[in-house]
C-alpha cells in the first residue's frame, strides 16, 4: 500500500490564542488532507515543551502539551466561559510567541478548571485509573512551579528531590489544587486529542506521531524513575546524549539528555519501554522513533562537555528490546529514523525489525550516484521526505545550495530555478518507489527560510512557524489529489 502525507505540527495551525490547537482548525486540516488524497498526518512530539520550547525536550514522555488545548472546544462544550476581549490575538499570526501565548492560555485553562472540575470528576477519576503516570506528572509539575521553575535536581528541599515518602505526602496536601489542575489539563488534552484521532481515522487518515528516543534531564520521568537513567546520587547525568559532528554541525549536537541504564532495563524485562511504547500506540497510528540509531549504538558524551566532539559510541540494546516489544505490542507500527552516522550494526537491526527507514531528498545531491537518499537508490520500504523539521524548507535549501548541489538536483529532479524547486521536489518524493511519501506543509506551500521549523544545534528562534489562515486552500488540495492519483498513492475514504 502506497501512502502519502504532510508533516504539520499542531502548533503551526492557524487560529486564536497565539498557537495552533486541537480545535476546529485541526479538523479543517484533516478535511484538507482528505481532499488532497493524503492518508497520513505527521506531527512533532506532543508533550509539554521544555528548554527552548523544543518538543524534543519535554517534561514527560506521556503528557500532552496544555498549550495545544482548544479554548473554542472548551467553550463549545460548556466547560469555559469567556468574556469579550479575553482571547489573545497576536499581532503576528504567522509566528508563535510562546511567553504571551502561555500566559493567556493558562489563565483561561485555570478558569475552565474552576468551572468544570466538579462536573467532570467521574470522567477525570476514570482517566486517572487508566493512566497511572498522570498523578506523578501532575505532582512533578506542581513542585516545579512551587520551586520557581528550577530543575528537579536543584530543588532546595532534598527530601522531595529524592521522593522521600513523608515529603511527597506533605507536598501532595500542600499543592493539592495545583496537582488537580494539571490532571484536569491532561484529561482535557486527551479528550480533545482522541476526538481528533477518531475524526481523522474516520476519514481514512492515520496520525503519525514522533517519539524522541531520549527524555529530558528536567522531566517527571527522570525524577520518578532515576533508576532507568545514568544519574548520580544528586540526580545529575553522568554522561549525556548527542551526535558527533555531521551535516548539521561541525561541533556535533550536544543534546544533554541522560542516557539509559540498558543493563538495568534488560534485567527488568524492558518494562519501562513497553509501557512507553504502549502509550505511543494508543496516541498514534504510526510512530516515528527518533534517533533509532541509538538502539543499535549510542553516542555517550561526558556531562559538562562544551560540545559533542569528544563522545564515544557504545553498543545499545539491539534486538533484545525489540523482541520484547514485538511480543508485548504486536500491532505496533513504527518508522525508524535512521539518519546520521549509520553503521552495519544499525543496518542489521533495522533489517531485522523490518521497520521502514527514512530518507531525505535534500541530502541526495552533491555526491555521486550511490548516495542513499537518491530516488534511484532508496528501497520501497522507506519513508521518503523532501525535508524534515530539521531541514531548511526546499525553497531555502535551493537558495543556499552550492552550485554543484543545485546542478545535481536540477538534473535529477527536473527543475530550472529556485521557484520551480519546491514543487519539483514534492513531485519527485511522491512519484518515488518509497511506500510512504511525506513533505512538510511549508514545502507544499513553497515557503522560504522564515518558515523553517528548527535549526539544529541552536536554541531560540525555533518551533515558531504558523500557517496563514486560508493557506490550506481547495486549489492546493486539488493539485495534491491529482499528484496522488498520478503517483498511485492510496486515497482515503471519500
Task: Write down the Rg.
Answer: 22 Å
Low-confidence residue ranges: none
| First and last CA, distance | 18 Å
Secondary-structure arrangement, i.e. CATH architecture:
Alpha-Beta Barrel
How many distinct helices? 19
Helix content: 40-55%
Strand content: 5-15%
Number of domains: 1
Quickly give the structural class.
alpha/beta
What is the strand arrangement across the widest sheet? 9-6-3-2-1-12-11-10
SSE layout and pairing:
Elements: E1 3-7, H1 24-36, E2 40-42, H2 71-76, H3 98-116, H4 121-130, H5 133-146, H6 158-161, H7 165-174, H8 176-202, E3 206-211, H9 220-224, E4 239-243, E5 253-258, H10 262-267, H11 271-283, E6 286-289, H12 293-296, E7 297-302, E8 312-315, H13 319-328, E9 334-336, H14 344-353, E10 357-360, E11 382-385, H15 394-400, H16 403-414, H17 421-431, E12 436-440, H18 441-444, H19 474-486
Helix pairs in contact: 1-19, 5-8
Amino acid at each position: 500500500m502506497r501512502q502519502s502525507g504532510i508533516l504539520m505540527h499542531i502548533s503551526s495551525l492557524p487560529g486564536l490564542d497565539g498557537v495552533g490547537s486541537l480545535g476546529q482548525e485541526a479538523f479543517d486540516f484533516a478535511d484538507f488532507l482528505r481532499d488532497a488524497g493524503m492518508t497520513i498526518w505527521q506531527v512533532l512530539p506532543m508533550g509539554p515543551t521544555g528548554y527552548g520550547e523544543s518538543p524534543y525536550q519535554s517534561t514527560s514522555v506521556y503528557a500532552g502539551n496544555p498549550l495545544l488545548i482548544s479554548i473554542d472546544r472548551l467553550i463549545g462544550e460548556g466547560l469555559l466561559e469567556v468574556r469579550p476581549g479575553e482571547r489573545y490575538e497576536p499581532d503576528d499570526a504567522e509566528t508563535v510567541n510562546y511567553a504571551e501565548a502561555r500566559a493567556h492560555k493558562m489563565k483561561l485553562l485555570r478558569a475552565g478548571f474552576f468551572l468544570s472540575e466538579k462536573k467532570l470528576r467521574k470522567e477525570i477519576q476514570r482517566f486517572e485509573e487508566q493512566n497511572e503516570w498522570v498523578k506523578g506528572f501532575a505532582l512533578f509539575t506542581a513542585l516545579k512551579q512551587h520551586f520557581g521553575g528550577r530543575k528537579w535536581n536543584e530543588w532546595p528541599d532534598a527530601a522531595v528531590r529524592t521522593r522521600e515518602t513523608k515529603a511527597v505526602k506533605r507536598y501532595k496536601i500542600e499543592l493539592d489544587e495545583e496537582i488537580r489542575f494539571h490532571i484536569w489539563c491532561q484529561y482535557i488534552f486527551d479528550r480533545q486529542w482522541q476526538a481528533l484521532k477518531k475524526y481523522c481515522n474516520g476519514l481514512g487518515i492515520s496520525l503519525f506521531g514522533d517519539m524522541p528516543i531520549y527524555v529530558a534531564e528536567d522531566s517527571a520521568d527522570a525524577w520518578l524513575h532515576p533508576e532507568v537513567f545514568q544519574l548520580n546520587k544528586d540526580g545529575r547525568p553522568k554522561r549525556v546524549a548527542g551526535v558527533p559532528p555531521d551535516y548539521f554541525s561541525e561541533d556535533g549536537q550536544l543534546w544533554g539528555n541522560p542516557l539509559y541504564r540498558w543493563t538495568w532495563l534488560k534485567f527488568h524485562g524492558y518494562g519501562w519501554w513497553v509501557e512507553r511504547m504502549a502509550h505511543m500506540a494508543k496516541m498514534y497510528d504510526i510512530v516515528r522513533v527518533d534517533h533509532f540509531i541509538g538502539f543499535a549504538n549510542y553516542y555517550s558524551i561526558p556531562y559538562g562537555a562544551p560540545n559533542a566532539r569528544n563522545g564515544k559510541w557504545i553498543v545499545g540494546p539491539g534486538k533484545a528490546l525489540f523482541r520484547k516489544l514485538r511480543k508485548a505490542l504486536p500491532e505496533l507500527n513504527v518508522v525508524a529514523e535512521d539518519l546520521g552516522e549509520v553503521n552495519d550494526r544499525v543496518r542489521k537491526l533495522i533489517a531485522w525489525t523490518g521497520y521502514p527507514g527514512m530518507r531525505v531528498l535534500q541530502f541526495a545531491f552533491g555526491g555521486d550516484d550511490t548516495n542513499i537518499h537518491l530516488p534511484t537508490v532508496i528501497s520501497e520500504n522507506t519513508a521518503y521526505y523532501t525535508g524534515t523539521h530539521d531541514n531548511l524548507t526546499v525553497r531555502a535549501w535551493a537558495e543556499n545550495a552550492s552550485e554543484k548541489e543545485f546542478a545535481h538536483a536540477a538534473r535529477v529532479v527536473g527543475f530550472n530555478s529556485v521557484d520551480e524547486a519546491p514543487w519539483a521536489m514534492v513531485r519527485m518524493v511522491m512519484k518515488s518507489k518509497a511506500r510512504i511519501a511525506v513533505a512538510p506543509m511549508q514545502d507544499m506551500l513553497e515557503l522560504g527560510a522564515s518558515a523553517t521549523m528548527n535549526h539544529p544545534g541552536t536554541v531560540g528562534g525555533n518551533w515558531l512557524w504558523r500557517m496563514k489562515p486560508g493557506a490550506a486552500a481547495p486549489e492546493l488540495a486539488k493539485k495534491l489529489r491529482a499528484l496522488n492519483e498520478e503517483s498511485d498513492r492510496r486515497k482515503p475514504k471519500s
